[in-house]
Design a protein that fits this description.
The structure holds two protein chains of two kinds.
Chain A lengths: L5 H13 L5 E17 L2 E19 L2 E7 L4 H17 L23 H4 L3 H17 L2 E18 L4 E17 L5 E8 L7 H14 L10 E6 L1 H9 L7 H5 L25 E3 L21 E5 L2 E2 L6 H7 L10 E3 L6 H6 L3 E15 L4 E14 L2 E5 L3 E5 L1 H4 L3 E4 L3 E3 L2 E3 L2 E11 L4
Parallel strand pairs in A: 7-12
Antiparallel strand pairs in A: 1-2, 1-4, 2-3, 4-5, 5-6, 7-19, 8-9, 8-11, 9-10, 12-13, 13-14, 13-15, 15-19, 16-19, 17-18
Helix pairs in contact in A: 4-5
Chain B lengths: L2 H8 L20 H5 L4 H17 L4 E17 L2 E19 L2 E7 L4 H18 L16 E6 L11 H17 L4 E17 L3 E20 L4 E6 L19 E2 L6 E2 L5 H17 L1 E2 L3 E7 L1 H13 L4 H5 L13 H6 L11 E4 L20 E6 L2 E2 L9 H4 L8 E2 L8 E2 L3 E4 L8 H6 L3 E13 L5 E13 L2 E7 L1 E6 H6 L1 E4 L6 E10 L4 E9 L2 E10 L6
Helix pairs in contact in B: 3-4, 5-6
Classes of the chains: A alpha+beta, B alpha+beta.
Chain lengths: 438, 546
């Protein structure tokens, strides 16, 4: 069993710390129990159950640090990993950016753990996949999907007295449904901390309906279009943008957040006024640990407010250099939106393209954050507020920064990946070529 | 530095299995620990416990992989070491067939009781999955090899080289960049040693010791007044070699073009000096005019195009739909292969899969389901003639045996079909890159991997390079910026008109190719000569932010 209680983790960490002879020492311990089923061609292809636990020791002499990890937990192994980290530290050159360890902190417990998710068994997974397969088989379609659950704990302790512990659960499901002719494809994915929210039957029905609806796609000319991005597609674009919220890269002049002539774009109106983004480890829908590995508290942080950049992420070192408070980044992003549903956004669109999701997004130009990628698994033409017909997939070349300056409307945010993302209506989205892929 | 910061900083997109902290072994400390693998007799005993337990619970086939994975990463920026990290991960994965279905379980507790429990769990999972069975697994027969071993033929074990030597090499390289006017420089050294033991109910007990090394850097220059920055990455390749790869050798360099190119020995200092000049040139480069160009693609760039547009679409599991929910399917459907006349490319295009090429990342003796490795044609004179298979797929193609393409990135991962080295064969007529350029009227010469993206059936792709040079009337006239080419796989490979010869052939590769759910990484090489593609569509990707 790789899931240790707070007390069990604390006991191991204390033991490891007792072996340390370094000036300072930090130890992290994490473990996960989980399993998965993968299926394709309407049948299970692989399945597994995996239990792992790892321990990492960082030892420091002066400003010289070495790190070593191990996944064996007898006393001899624990002594070995500490010794190895110390030997490494003695060999390492001084780190001029070394930050002294933080002492004890008062961390809140965030609501990341759920009992019913932790209780998932191989039979639970098989049953959930069985429901998905019912849908594809009944409609004479072909499903390929993946269901995975995990229970995980993370704990850190250091020689200054800091200790933190978090336990979390996750269940994620995704399915691609294709028609037998291979001319239509639909997809959906969802993840939750709480198993009770996961309905593989309903989700599979959505993917199946997209597969049927996207068959026989027409080719239309690439160019600039108004697009309705489903939350998954919107999330695909945004994920790449948040790396740019790193203050150091911006100060160093090598990110889209860098200002011409020096400095950062903190405080500038960089996006449309209807764009507001924050993160909050206590958010009931997207909770996350309320601490970072180096012992910083993670608090509710407003990143963008009405289009203005309100915060950048500062490491402890860079915050010290700039004379500001450290601000850790949190990937559980909440983008505020309106009250409209996806259907209402479509209804309000004269001409446009509905995008289910994007695929294979890569950075083309870090200077402008230009990305390229393709639509996938359901792309449709909208006219006079109605979906008229499926269209062939497009390649896009677009920057999420430019995209968030062209926001016409935002719908109601929903859980997407590890964040809350609204469906978006964006004008002048740039499609540069067509793809024959289904 | 934290693990996640390190991942973020390197921007390599390396999967978690690559960076799980790391035990460093310099000569001054317990080298023996890294260099002394687990006693093979102990591994055989443990494997037998698992195989017997699986059989006793009803498994009709079982295999066991006992893996000890050592990784070492040294990360530096400018004049400082950011991280020296080592990881050691040790455990066992058991895969079984029971009631016609696969099951898998893994554990890092290697006492007899835990091993037996893992094997029993794998059987229980297989039997559970059998309830959703459509067709039972058809596993190709495989003779047992008995007790055998294989080792990467390294000259210098990278784990034996003192840490201080490695750190000094990286810091000296950084110093060259700063001296040359670079504002920022990151350099990293990745070293991997997979000590893998495989045993199966076929009667194989295979012990393998696999080594990989990858030196890399990014040099950045800033134009603060213009608010611009440009970077260039190393033109090294990750290799299935030891530290000898970092020992420069004149005979392993190709000069005479716009920059030095490296074969099986790499000069980190030389490359970073050139990169520092290149970033200054990139800041002043002229924007590319969109249009059709003849592309001259160096192996440092072409390897990734081969990987994405040839390697992935010829994976049989992808063709059959097993990857549909993640990376997608393939346009190279079985009917195209069955026709024996599908023109994947021009007659000049010959693509070979090879799991044995010396120095390559994919070279091993046996794959992760006990099949001996070899090589075979995938594209012959432009025609699709074969795919890449594992044991439970070969009946589909009517082959007698698997092509040994099974791999797992860890003891805790389920092995499945992964790409072998897939390489473009050089031309048979003598031709150097310099001579190839002389024939090009309007072209672009590209070096190094940069942005890459391809659709889920591998038709439409877009690639850009670290360096792009304009070619006019057979002469290189200067550097271009914002150049990306977009193409369709079949059209692109049919536009291949010239290939340089064996002397120009070099390996490129990727250290962490992602596939599968849960995601796994694998390392794979792609060899090619400098090659010419006519009339390819090039776009300008320059934009302005408000």
């Amino acid at each position: 069993m790789a899931i240790l209680s707070k007390e069990e983790a604390q006991a191991i960490l204390k033991k490891v710390l007792s072996f340390s002879k370094a000036d300072s020492c930090e130890i992290s311990l994490n473990g996960s129990d989980g399993g998965n089923i993968r299926y394709a061609r309407n049948a299970v292809s692989t399945a597994g159950q995996i239990s792992v636990m790892d321990l990492a020791v960082s030892s420091t002499f002066g400003k010289k640090t070495g790190t070593a990890t191990i996944n064996e937990f007898d006393d001899a192994s624990l002594q070995k990993v500490v010794k190895r980290a110390e030997e490494l530290a003695m060999l390492a050159p001084e780190n001029p950016e070394f930050m002294p360890l933080l002492g004890p902190q008062d961390f809140e417990d965030s609501p990341t753990y759920n009992e019913s998710t932790a209780a998932i068994t191989p039979d639970t997974r098989a049953e959930m996949v069985g429901k998905s397969l019912q849908v594809s088989k009944a409609a004479n379609l072909e499903a390929a999907g993946f269901l995975e659950n995990s229970t995980r704990f993370d704990a850190v302790m250091n020689s200054k007295g800091l200790f933190a512990y978090n336990k979390r659960t996750n269940v994620s499901f995704s399915v691609t449904v294709r028609n037998q002719a291979g001319t239509g494809s639909g997809y959906i994915e969802q993840q939750f901390n709480n198993l009770d929210k996961m309905d593989t039957l309903s989700l599979s029905k959505i993917a199946a309906s997209k597969a049927t609806g996207s068959a026989g796609a027409k080719a239309i000319e690439p160019g600039k279009y108004t697009v309705i991005l489903e939350p998954l597609a919107a999330s695909d674009m945004l994920g790449n943008m948040f790396r740019g919220f790193d203050a150091r890269s911006a100060d160093e002049g090598r990110s889209f957040m860098s200002k011409k002539g020096g400095g950062t774009r903190l405080g500038e109106q960089l996006f449309s006024e209807n764009v507001s983004i924050y993160s909050d480890p206590m958010h009931p829908e997207v909770p996350s640990a309320a601490w970072t590995e180096d012992g910083l508290k993670v608090k509710r942080t407003q990143w963008v407010e009405k289009g203005v950049v309100k915060n950048l992420s500062y490491s402890r070192y860079w915050a010290g250099q700039k004379g500001v408070e450290p601000v850790p980044f949190n990937r559980s992003i909440v983008m505020e939106g309106g009250t409209q549903s996806l259907e209402e956004l479509i209804k309000s669109t004269e001409k446009g393209i509905l995008v289910t999701r994007f695929w294979y997004i890569r950075s083309v130009d870090p200077q402008t954050l230009l990305l390229t990628g393709l639509t996938r698994d359901g792309t449709f033409y909208i006219e006079n507020g109605e979906i008229k017909f499926p269209v062939k997939n497009f390649r896009f070349n677009e920057s999420p920064v430019i995209m968030l300056n062209n926001v016409e409307a935002l719908g109601k945010p929903v859980r997407t990946g590890s964040g809350m993302i609204p469906p978006m209506k964006i004008r002048d989205f740039t499609f540069t070529s067509l793809s024959d892929a289904v | 530095m934290r693990r996640r910061d390190f991942l973020y900083m390197t921007g390599m997109g390396i999967g978690a299995s690559m960076v799980q902290g790391m035990p460093v072994f310099g000569k001054e400390i317990s080298v023996e620990e890294a260099l002394t693998p687990v006693d093979v007799r102990l591994k055989k005993r443990m494997a037998d416990v698992a195989l017997n337990a699986a059989r006793s619970k009803g498994a009709t086939y079982a295999d066991v992989r006992i893996g000890r994975y050592l990784n070492q990463v040294i990360a530096t920026r400018e004049n400082q070491v950011q991280n020296i990290a080592n990881s050691e991960s040790y455990g066992m994965g058991v895969r079984v067939i029971a009631n016609g279905s696969w099951g898998f379980a893994a554990t890092n507790n290697l006492d007899n009781d835990s091993i037996a429990k893992a094997a029993e769990m794998a059987v229980a999972i297989a039997k559970g999955n059998a309830k959703l069975l459509v067709e039972p697994v058809q596993l190709a027969a495989q003779k047992g090899f008995g007790e055998v071993s294989w080792k990467t033929p390294v000259e210098i074990n990278a784990f034996e080289v003192p840490i201080t030597d490695k750190v000094n090499l990286l810091l000296n390289a950084n110093n060259e960049a700063i001296k040359g006017g670079a504002k920022y420089v990151n350099s990293n050294l990745f070293m991997v040693n997979e000590q893998k033991y495989f045993a199966s109910t076929d009667g194989s007990y295979i012990d393998q010791d696999i080594h990989r090394v990858w030196p890399t850097f990014t040099v950045t220059r800033i134009d603060p007044a213009g608010g611009k920055f440009e970077s260039r990455n190393a033109l090294s390749a990750p290799m299935g070699m030891g530290f000898e790869y970092l020992t420069p050798k004149d005979s392993e360099q190709i000069k005479g073009g716009p920059l030095t190119m490296y074969k099986k020995r790499y000069d980190l200092i030389g490359d970073i000096r050139e990169a520092t000049v290149h970033v200054a040139e990139k800041l002043k480069a002229k924007p590319v005019l969109p249009g059709k160009y003849d592309l001259v693609l160096d192996p440092t760039h072409l390897f990734l195009t081969i990987h994405e547009s040839v390697g992935h679409p010829t994976e049989l599991d992808r063709v059959l739909g097993y990857e549909a929910n993640y990376a997608g399917t393939s346009f190279l459907t079985l009917d195209k292969w069955e026709s024996k006349k599908f023109n994947f490319g021009s007659k000049a295009v010959n693509v070979i899969a090879d799991k044995t090429e010396p120095g390559s990342l994919g070279a091993v003796g046996y794959d992760d389901e006990g099949v001996k490795c070899g090589n075979w044609d995938i594209i012959k004179d432009g025609i699709l003639v074969n795919y890449q298979t594992i044991r439970d797929q070969v009946h589909i193609l009517g082959l007698k045996a698997s092509q040994a393409c099974c791999y797992a990135d860890s003891w805790e991962s389920i092995q499945f079909q992964r790409m072998p080295n897939v390489s473009l064969a050089p031309g048979k007529e003598p031709l150097s890159a310099a001579d190839l350029v002389k024939d090009v009227e309007k072209g672009i010469y590209m070096f190094g991997r940069n942005s890459y993206s391809i659709d889920q059936q591998r038709y439409n792709f877009q690639f850009s390079a670290q360096l792009a040079y304009e070619i006019k009337d057979g002469k290189i006239t200067g550097m271009l910026k914002d150049a990306s080419y977009q193409a369709n796989t079949q059209e692109f490979w049919n536009s291949c008109t010239q290939l340089c010869d064996q002397d120009d052939y070099r390996l490129g590769g990727t250290f962490a190719d992602g596939k599968g759910q849960p995601g796994q990484v694998s390392a794979v090489s792609h060899g090619s000569p400098t090659s010419r593609f006519n009339g390819v569509n090039v776009i300008n990707t320059g934009r302005k932010l408000g």
